[in-house]
Design brief:
The protein is mostly helical. The chain contains two helices and no strands.
């Protein structure tokens, strides 16, 4: 394909006779190469899109994890405060019966 890219019609005919091929075959091969390159570009775009989607998902999960860790820390702090309050004032806030 590369050898024939710069040849004019006369040179191309001579090249094909020497190689024992038809100019139509070169046309088919050139189109096949173009389709293969298009497929590679499409595959690269698909990979880039999937990578971008995966990165968005990772960021979303990281935000969710941070939110849950914050809620867990708050719940743990409240439990500790409740235990300290019970230790100071007794169960149920020091209400005597």
């Amino acid at each position: 394909m590369i050898e024939t890219a710069s040849l004019n019609a006369v040179e191309l005919g001579e090249y094909c006779r020497r190689r024992g091929i038809y100019p139509d075959q070169l046309t088919v091969w050139r189109e096949a190469c173009a389709r293969a390159n298009d497929w590679e570009r499409a595959a690269s775009r698909q990979i880039a899109r999937e990578t971008r989607d995966a990165n968005k998902r990772v960021q979303q999960l990281e935000r969710e994890l941070a939110r849950k860790e914050k809620a867990l820390a708050e719940a743990a702090a409240l439990m500790i405060l409740r235990k300290k309050a019970e230790a100071i004032w007794g169960p149920e806030g020091g209400a005597e019966e």
